């Protein structure tokens, strides 16, 4: 939570009624021992990564309550995890820039639609400019990695270390048993050829 709870710009957003678009889905991801939530708009294919605190606040936004009412309720129910007003303003601004919010104000909705059209035009121009690049569709490798996890564990875990140590001991034992032959071969291999003067 930020050091200052209140913000001078709060009046700009406090009376607004906003919510996530109906097409936005939320998925939980754990990355490097930290939990993140990815907001995915299935219609525009836009993504936004949010912390657990931000996700808990954003999912409470609805068209029946103002931002201030939602924030007040959140502060009362989660006093330690509640975002500051400045953090709420920043979060709403980022979600607005990502076209993930629905507003009751028609002007804001028109601004979102206009920005979406401009973004689509930029993407089309980018596609025309990048006709030389091959785009390869990506896929989620989690299912494959989960299937091969036992094999990876078997080849990199304590079992693999035990097999490697046994092979090392067997090789050392074979070398000790045949040390006479190895010594003779080494002498012949390392001996310098003598040329008569």
List the helices and strands and how they pair.
Layout: E1 18-20, E2 24-31, E3 34-41, E4 46-51, H1 52-58, H2 67-77, H3 85-97, E5 101-103, H4 106-129, H5 142-156, H6 158-177, H7 179-190
Antiparallel strand pairs: 1-5, 2-3, 3-4
Please explain how this structure is put together.
This protein is an alpha+beta fold and 197 residues long. The chain has helices at residues 52-58, 67-77, 85-97, 106-129, 142-156, 158-177, 179-190, and strands at residues 18-20, 24-31, 34-41, 46-51, 101-103. The strands form 2 sheets. It has a 3-stranded antiparallel β-sheet with strand order 2-3-4. Strands 1-5 form a two-stranded antiparallel ribbon. It is elongated. The protein starts with 17 loop residues before the first strand and ends in a 7-residue tail after the last helix.
Q: Give the helix level as a range of percent.
A: 40-55%
Largest sheet: 3 strands, antiparallel
Give the overall shape, derived from the CA principal axes: elongated
Structural class estimated from helices and strands: alpha+beta
Strands of the largest sheet, in order across it?
2-3-4
Tally of alpha and pi helices:
7
Stretches where pLDDT falls below 50 for ≥5 residues? none
Give the overall average pLDDT. 80
As a whole number of angstroms, the C-alpha radius of gyration is: 32 Å
Number of β-strand runs: 5
What separation lies between the terminal Cα atoms? 89 Å
Share of β-strand residues: 5-15%
Question: What are the secondary-structure elements, in order, as H or E?
Answer: EEEEHHHEHHHH
């Amino acid at each position: 939570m930020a050091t200052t709870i209140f913000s001078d710009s709060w009046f700009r957003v406090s009376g607004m009624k906003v919510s996530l678009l109906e097409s936005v889905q939320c998925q939980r991801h754990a990355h490097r021992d930290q939990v993140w939530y990815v907001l995915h708009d299935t219609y525009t294919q836009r993504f936004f990564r949010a912390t657990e605190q931000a996700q808990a606040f954003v999912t409470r936004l609805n068209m029946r309550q103002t931002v201030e009412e939602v924030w007040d309720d959140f502060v009362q129910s989660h006093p330690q995890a509640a975002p500051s007003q400045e953090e709420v303003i920043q979060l709403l601004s980022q979600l607005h820039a990502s076209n993930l919010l629905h507003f009751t104000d028609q002007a804001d909705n028109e601004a979102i639609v206009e920005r979406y059209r401009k973004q689509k035009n930029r993407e089309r121009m980018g596609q025309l400019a990048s006709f030389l690049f091959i785009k390869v569709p990506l896929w989620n490798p989690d299912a494959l990695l989960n299937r091969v996890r036992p094999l990876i564990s078997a080849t990199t875990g304590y079992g693999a270390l035990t097999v490697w140590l046994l092979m090392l001991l067997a090789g050392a034992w074979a070398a000790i048993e045949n040390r006479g032959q190895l010594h003779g071969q080494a002498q012949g291999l390392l001996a310098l050829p003598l040329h008569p003067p």
